[in-house]
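Here we describe the complex-level prediction in full. Unlike the single-chain runs in Section 2.1, the two entities below were treated as one system.
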Amino acid sequence: MNNPENLKKVKEEWKEKKVLPLLRKFPERKSQFKTSFDGDIDILYTPEDLPPDGYDQALGFPGQYPFTRGVQPTMYRGRFWTMRQYAGFGTAEESNERYRYLLSQGQTGLSVAFDLPTQIGYDSDDQMAEGEVGKVGVAIDSLEDMEVLFEGIPLDKVSTSMTINSTAAILLAMYIAVGEKQGVDPSRLTGTIQNDILKEYIARGTYIFPPDASMRLITDIFEYCSKALPDFNTISISGYHIREAGADAAQEVAFTLADGIAYVESAIKAGLDPNVFGKRLSFFFNSHNNFLEEIAKFRAARRLWAKIMKDRFGVTDEKAMMLRFHTQTGGSTLTAQQPMNNIIRVAFQALAAVLGGTQSLHTNSFDEALGLPTQDSVTIALRTQQIIACETGVTDTVDPVGGSYYVENLTDRIEKLALDYLQKIDDLGGMVKAVQEGYIQKEILNTAYNYQLKVEREEQVIVGVNQYLSDENLKKDILKIDPVIEEKQRNKLAALKRRRNSQVVEEALKELKKAALGSENLFPIILNAVKSYATLGEISNTLRDVFGEYTEAVIL
Amino acid sequence: MKRVKVLVAKPGLDGHDRGAKVVAMALRDAGMEVIYTGLRQSADEVVKAALQEDVDIIGLSILSGAHMRICEKVLNLMKEKGIDEKPVFVGGIIPAEDALELKKMGILEVFGPGTPLKAIVDSIKGAVDK
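The structure predicted for the assembly as a whole is:
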């Protein structure tokens, strides 16, 4: 029976004798069953569908190359993933209060959401910031705001993830400065900055500078931190937003790892050793509704990245081959209709992330298709993770779905599809070029549009949206950001500008401009400017003057 | 019959453009001519594009929470330029209360998450036929 050839024959016979006669009487629900990436799904999977490479090569053991079954030998038997809820809104004072609340409820790491002006390098008093201050995250204009944001939170005890990209160097510099004021040496800081500009061009939109300057800032951070902040993840290469923009599971893996390859190439070109900086690369994936496919996706990404680091970049240290990742449940899967249903969606998505071996997790709140989440909805989201961790039992052995014929087959197929894309991207001249030309954006948009058409035709059912509708009153409590915040933030900024030593600030900015025109590492100079209380906008504008701004490839 | 011309715009700093692009594709598939602005447009730029392209209708996509301020600015500028007869619709994450406010302000329709593309297409056709 275990002979694959024989098994294949037996399966065919079974189909003929048992399945076909039944289908004549009772046809299946659909004429075709498909994965999200448009692959066929067979009625049954057997050992013949396992990867041809065999157990050792394809799966191996957790904590060992190719890490298909997990990056640590003990996984959640050792400790659970970091429960890290992305939060931040309004002023630094309000966000600080939310962080302290989350930590008091058993959350184990912080994740800071910044408002759009902070992410795009505008101070709160900039005309471009009008109406946006404190809306999708906290407004940070200067080191002063950052000091308030982390007041009473010991930076040597809590790890902090910051969703910040084109202004990542500035915010990380502020974080280091706050740590120093608390008496924490930078070498003891742990956490992550997103610092992934390519996916901003592709899908998220908070870019400032053109690719060359952006890549330089990123490698400058890599270089500086490899010595000064050895335990800090200097990038979170993100598929999350690529998926939210409409990509399918295989595209999510492909485009994320393609971004990763571009960063590694850029750092190697800058003279850095992939065996060293490779250990500080981290990843960020989405978890959508298709449960088994998502589990397979995480496993495929892990295996493929290990192979890329080993074979393509010649890395010898296994730690630099490990794909460690954060997961967030799928924001675009949340429905405004019957919003309580989202609690269930989030639970399944979170379970998939855990079965996929995530290192940290954000669970969305059920009300996020309606507005910013309230404290109550955030608490349910956090409790969802705690229930998975403590009650379901899935954390008691490593990679419990490993060996499932279907999951292993999906893992293999997602890896192969991603590999095909990587080849295509290489042929186009690499990821930076593929993004500048809009190829990646077009691929994603096509998938997004086709998905929407499937929803319209009800080939894809969304409970409460295109089937199982009910009359409901959508009114609910949502978190409102008081427009007064914008004014408050502007006043605070004006007061700081009066108080600080403007000569020192000017000197620091002049120094920065000079360095930007040259080729030295910009990070220590930005750190110096931040400590002089130069604002985020002033620092960003100084760099804008030198680097110019990126113009989007408008794709439709 | 003249082809309906629509401006689909992303005003403000918001980078969520999946909705705007998918709607733009659906409008195009429904036979309309669509101008898509791309990200990070100021209210000035949106109104300027509407004038330049002489569109029949304007769609604004906003998921950043800045909708009240942005819509107010766009509508005021349209009045200034004498094109306030052109209908404006909004898509995005807009709380129900705000949607009511926006309609009072002069926004024709607000489309939230889960709105079928067909509903948007029909609504625009209806607005332009009037």
